Amino acid sequence: MTREVSDLPDLHPGVSRDAATPRDSLIVSLLPVLVFAAILGGWEAWVRLAQVKRYLLPPPSAVVIALVEEPMRYIDAAVTSLSAAIGGLLFATVGAFALGVVMAHSRALERALYPPALLLKVMPIVAVYPLFLIWFGFGIWPRVLIAALITFFPVLVNTVIGLRSIDPAAHDFLRALHASRSQIFWRLRLPSSLPYLFAALRICVPLSLVGAVVAEFLSGASGMGQLILVANGDFDTPALFGAVIVLAGLGVSLTVGVSYVERRVLDWHDSYRGT
Predict the structure, then answer these.
(1) 10 Å Cβ neighbour count for 202?
(2) Which residues contact 61 (CB under 8 A, 6 or more apart)?
(3) Which of 8, 139, 232, 266 has fewest C-beta within 10 Å?
(4) 178: region left, alpha or beta (phi > 0 left; psi from -120 to 50 alpha)
(5) Sign of CA pseudo-dihedral 221, 222, 224, 227
(6) 36: which residues sit within 8 A by CB, 6+ positions away?
């Protein structure tokens, strides 16, 4: 004998089955802010009470002062690093997607091209970057190429998987309608690959920043990497923490931007319906 849903025991008696009230939603939204504020407050109090040396661990207030006193120092460095990161990510995305399309349509070409692509993945950046400096000088191009090198493989793999993760029934239906390979690609394979491609971009956005900053470490070029090196050499830990905060903010902003574009492009996808 079946039982009605209303007759089943409440597994969470403290939680109402009704929709959350605006007050509950506000509390949930404020919880991360309150936790973050508590961490900063505890950090500030501990550093001051324990009299920790500033060059070992600065209080959050000192980091804020460092950011406020020289904002253009961080803005200029951030723009430089961001330009290299975005440029590298665009190069990697376009190149990896084009190569992924070729590999997804031919098993023979996949077996031939996958080893060189994997070689790019495992190639040490420290060993390759001096060659880029010799070939392309000390401008922005070596940093762009390092950012592209570090983000190429994830986009390639997800592109190939996405282009092959199609609904067999939909594929057979298009074949029955005598659709060409290009029509199948644009109407089925490409839309099916977009969730995988955006997933790769969410991973590669912070990786591109890492690649750009590492390249600046190795070359001493302007950007967040150079700012961190100078702050480290001067034992200026407030500036060092400020650079880390700026980089984290850049990574979060880019990731949120990619997620926003993903939501707009994939509003038809099952994972976004009703959200």
Answers:
(1) 15
(2) 44
(3) 8
(4) left
(5) positive
(6) none
Q: How far is CA 272 from the centre of its chain?
A: 20
**Nearest residue to 118 via CA among 153, 160, 163:** 153
Pick the CATH number of 60-272 from 1.10.3720.10, 3.40.50.740, 3.40.630.30, 3.30.565.10: 1.10.3720.10
pLDDT in the model for residue 275: 52
Question: Which pLDDT value is given to residue 129?
Answer: 85
251/205 Cα distance (integer angstroms)? 7
Alpha-carbon span 270 to 186, nearest angstrom: 19
Residue pLDDT, tens place only, 4-54? 444 444 444 444 444 556 666 666 777 777 888 888 888 888 888 888 887
Whole-number Å distance between alpha carbons of 84 and 145: 8
- What pLDDT sits at residue 164? 87
At a CB cut-off of 8 Å and minimum separation 6, what does 206 contact?
A: 251, 254, 255
Where do the domains of the chain lie? Answer: 60-272
H helix intervals, the chain: 22-49, 60-69, 71-104, 107-122, 125-136, 141-164, 168-176, 181-184, 190-219, 224-233, 237-265
Grouping H, G, I as helix, E, B as strand and the rest as coil, residue 6 is helix
Cβ–Cβ < 8 Å for 147, 85: yes
How confident is the model at residue 269, as a pLDDT? 67
Positions in the chain short of pLDDT 50: 1-18
Q: What string of H, E and C letters represents the secondary structure of 190-201? A: HHHHHHHHHHHH
| Best CA proximity match to 149, nearest among 202, 67, 89, 78 | 89
